[in-house]
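Case study B.
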Amino acid sequence: MGDHDFEGFDRCAKCGICLAQCPVYKESLLEKASPRGKIQLAKFYREGRGTLSEGYRGIYGQCLLCGACATVCPTGMKAHEIVLKMREEIVGVRGLDDRGSRLVTSILRSHNISQEDNQERGEWREELKTLPGHRYEKDRAEVAYFVGCVASFFPMVQKIPRNMSRILDQAGVDFALLGGLEWCCGFPLLAAGAPEKVPEMSRHNLEVVRRLGAEKVLFSCPSCYRTWKERYDTPIVLQHTADYIHELIQNERLRLKPLAPLRVAYHDSCDLGRQGGVYDTPRKIIQSIPGVTLVELEHNRAGSLCCGGGGNLETTAPELAGKLAKAKIEEIQQSGADLVVTACQQCVRTIASSARRQRLDLKVMDISELVCMAMGPD
Amino acid sequence: MLPMKIQDELRTLVGEDGFFTEPEDLASYSYDGFVREFMPDAVILPRSTQDVSRIIKVADREGIKIVARGAGTNLSGNSVARQGGMIMSFTRMNRIVEIDIANRCAVVQPGVVNADLQKQVMKKGFFYPPDPASMAVCTLGGNVALNAGGPRAVKYGVTRDYVLGLEVVLADGEIIRTGGKTIKNVSGYDLTRLMVGSEGTLGIVTEITLRLIPLPKARKTLLAVFSSVEEVAETVSAIVGAGIVPTTLELLDKVIIDLIRDVGGASFPPNAAGVLLIEVDGDEDAVEKESRKVADFCRDRGAVQVDVAKTQEEADRLWQARRSVGGALYKVSPSVVVEDAVVPVSKLPKIIHTIGVLSRKYNLKVGVNAHAGDGNLHPDIMTDVRNREEMERVEKFIREMYEEVIALGGTLSGEHGIGIGKEKYMSLEFSRRSLDLMRGIKRVFDPKNILNPGSFL
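Model:
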């Protein structure tokens, strides 16, 4: 199986503790959907006991890559990493399926996941109340803000970069966008089983940031952040905006005003929490706003339930992803919070879309929006 | 492979999404928590008692072997198709039918996860005590089939002590009920208790009535470190002798302590040779008094360190030592064979000593963690199942250990079951006549031998 070390399979004790954590398994209640099942089937394949049928593609397609299973594994197995390797193997042996092929072709051609002209990445700026002459595209800047495809192209979450621009301006940060030169980080390629295309993306993005002379790259997208951290070999400081905003508040570069009493639940996104290890700063930001009370969801921090938006599941198994989003929303409603905040555009989009489909009056926003509310009127 | 005509018939009974014969589906039901694996011919997921009955009627007619399976967490190979046939997975029969407060019981389908029931009854101020280590995922049907226990068994007993009644589908598809919702019931032979722990060999349980007890109001956790395992045993005897029945009395031996210290998980003094993790529960006053008394017993008998948790966080920290055992074992060895023996409580030091002697004799690394309060010990043999020569030594070690266990008045299994792992040792514990009686019972219930065949009989 390529260059990968698959020795780790034998470390799976088959104890099944991971089944209790896996949102995908809990829906179908079929062993093949569980982390243990996916590890054991990969082992079968490696040992030459199974051929890679289309059935395998279906099985490995049904994973959120949320990593919840790994948090309880007594032997330290990371099933989500095995899933990525198996997706790659399936693509290697059987090729991409139509959907995967469209996605990969689109990213390689237009450099984003939306099949749009990449020059339109910065369209969200048009709705800013004040837009400086340089439109945040500069020759040199201390900080580069990597917006990511979803927040660039999906209207529902375009307010994230708008709010971030306002926050960074307010704090006097010398920052720049990469505009049409920002390419997809490569995460969707990894998830689709085509990791060999990622270096093309990373080389380009790193070169653009280097030309800018930036000392730091900021990400409001936890998946871009994770991909850069894991796959981009660079000495440049990489930081999620939750950590950065918290720093700005601590250094008193950002002052937050009281809000009318508000109970705010925080939802830990998989890539920022379990994968990025960022749990505390979003909570500290919420708690630093006078009038706001932080509410914990039943499953929180490393035990957080995925919103259903992870691992390309929305495209491979939309019905399942919808059920998981519904479960997330039920948990939010049970918390009694007035509003749920997260630090991930994908979670905002998934939760808001599901609430809209269910005709529920559920308020969900990115942490940057809550911070802007506490900065007062623009 | 089952004939296509029968496959079609079974598929019609449960629908497309309840019957599987694709290789990858079969492979994913070829294993459980035990070492050995067997490929089934089909996998079927019933949704109701009627489904189960109809499926078994087909199996009876065609002679198809049936192995019932919950979450597949058992450590005795009881949910794999040793002789082929069909895996019947109960994960989709997972409804809590009712929580009957007036009669202090719960009625559940077999696929309900143990921890889910615990959570629901706790909300109503009640308690279902059996707590196998896999409780977050294992099913109550599996718990009944294997008569599962757990750390709390020392005070509260095992699954059998809570099963009041069952609905069972027999090997010809007929549905019977045993017991009911009453605690007292001495009418006829006790079929309920016979079914519990019968490892899926006598019938298929489709509904379970479980006794509930009031939820204890308070709980306290202590951790005591000793410099010799004899001191640990004396302390256990003293606690039990003083009329205090702790909820848990967990023992870790020196091999395990050193291992956890080496690979991380918890820290212990350098001379630690035995650790007791003790929990008491009950009314607040009693818990306060008992925990002080237990701490004194430990100190009086030479404990070099006694920690009493003041908060839930501190209690969680003390439990961390116990919880880190599994991970620590796998950090140092590719495979771990977990055994499950029971001796009378007073014989614990003797058997731990024997295990030390045997592990040196066969040059194996073996740690012991034990539910010391009820004499149930889990020797963890750190090995590599791919190493045939070493596995032969492991086999010899296990046989000699069980010979000693039986000689001390113990038994082959406390809570994991016999299954396909320990059937070869049955003659150590049972006379030929006893085994014949068991086989006779099996024949009465399952004359065609289609229910979990090849298991312990």
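Chain B has a mean pLDDT of 95. The remaining cases will be described in the next quarterly update.
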